[in-house]
Amino acid sequence: MRVTVDCPACGTEVPAGVFCGTCGAHLNPQPGDGPQWLRPRVFCAAPGEHVLRPAVASSLFPHLSQFSRTPFNLGLVLVVVAMAVAVQLRLPGALVTVAALGLPLLFVIYRHQSGVYRDIPRSSLAITVALGIAIGVSWVLLTGDLVIRETGAPFDAGIAGNRVLRDGLGVAEGGALLMMIPAVVVRLVRPGTRESLNGFVIGVLSALSFTAAATFTRLAPQFAAATVAKNRPVEWLLVEAGIRGVTIPLTAACAGGLLGAALWFRRPTGHAQLRRSLVNAALALFGIAVLGVYAIVGITDVAGLPQETMLAWHVAMVLVALLALRLGLQLALLHEEPGPIRGEPQLCLHCRNVVPEMAFCPACGAATHASSAKSRAERRAVVPEPGPLDAAIWPGYGVAAQAYTAGSLSRTTSTRVLSMWVVAILVVTAPLITLSASISEPAVVYNCPPDCGRPPSGTPVAALPRFTAADGAFSVSYPAPGSAYDITTTPDGVTARYTGGDGGTLKLWSQPAGGKSAREVAEAFLTVRYPDARTAYEVPNAMVGYQSGYGEVADIWPQDGDASYRHLRVVILVAVKHDLALIAGAIGPYREFGPKFGPGRPSGANLELAMDLDKYVNSFAWRGDPPR
Question: Are strands 345-347 and 550-556 parallel, antiparallel or unpaired?
Fold first, then answer.
């Protein structure tokens, strides 16, 4: 005979136990259990975890038991190890493949192994993935040129407001909203069974498909650049791996999963109308929080922070997104309309007690919906002892006081998960690496003759307009109106954004030297504006305004949240006279000079704007200099 009690939270008569089988609340609340509407100490998809514990596996793979979750924990470790190996071997193609496909592939394996794919129409899954890929590729093609040409903003002091709105917030928030479209479309046309975790799966697939497609499209130039990235600093590759392969897909998965759970949330009826309103408000609040995460990440990406600081911000935002997802899933599972309550014995997926099949396990509090329909059907096959000799024996809890036998539950093994992931990655990576080796251009070799170049030539500086500082401290020529430049003047100089060819920015300006040498001024500028710049070489016999100075060419590989890949080159030339530093700088996409591109003669500048810089550098003049 079963003992029943009245639940203090919902008033329903339920089997005696630790938790109410109808609403999941504690039947005998203790101090520290927290509010029953949230039940923070017991996560519905992993009863042994606190809701505020940022565990990745139980958050992204909620349909699995703790026993089956271990292989996916190892899979997450394998993703990181594979990227570390690619970094160590300096194989950008392998790094791109693992970063783009590592987590999405692991989620696809989880979907299959958990059996949840049977709960969702296959056409819905296909629509989600296809739309996510199409929108991701289109978004990159639309914004790629926009982002790549905004390479000169770091020359300016601080962060330009229009760049924050356009590249920081516009690109980041636009991508965050677009990656939700496939889930919204599927919810409108083919929702299938309305359970919050089914929506979670659709939402995660939507976000990861978009992110993987965007990452592959933006990073595609790495396949053609070089099979082995000998010139890329290892620490920068590590930062790229952390952002591309870990933080970006995790943040996207959390955002997509939260939206999907909210869209598929089946509202309770009857006396639970107030509870429904509170849950809807909370889910909307968590959605706004995730959009705030993307806003912060976007602003961080355009702030010109050191790479390690940027990675730290990305990690912090992932933690916020994980907590928002867990809180959202907890509320959805606790408060959505339960399915039919059978009350017949069923083996609990988590505590392995035979309990009445209700919305929640009376023993551990796990939500029944935190498992696939296939798993629920398997676990109903329990009979009172004695049973088949090959069946396991489990204790009863909240049912007739006796032992029960059940067939062995299907269990995901580490060998199966890891081998499936490795094989899939190798199948994709091997042909891409082969393609990269076949299309990457070999190092340029000059043979003189005939590749001897041509004498330097350019437009006479006298034919160009001239900028003169308001106090007359210096003057300089700048590109003429109607040329391929957008000109902006400020009290300290001229900024010219190159609108042709590879794009980039040219800047000619002054600043007080403050007793510093030309070298010290240049190094201080690079430290402030480009803290992660790597010196490629010093310019020999550098001159500015026919005054001896210092010049440096440096490389940067900026990271940003839209997963773009840019190898930028910076040229900075400085000379000091009368304690006033005159500075000429150019920044733009790196492109190797050779017989077919560049000045024709051997040069290591490898920046299209460098070919146009000469005629402005020596047009500088300090006050009192003779006319030229």
Answer: unpaired
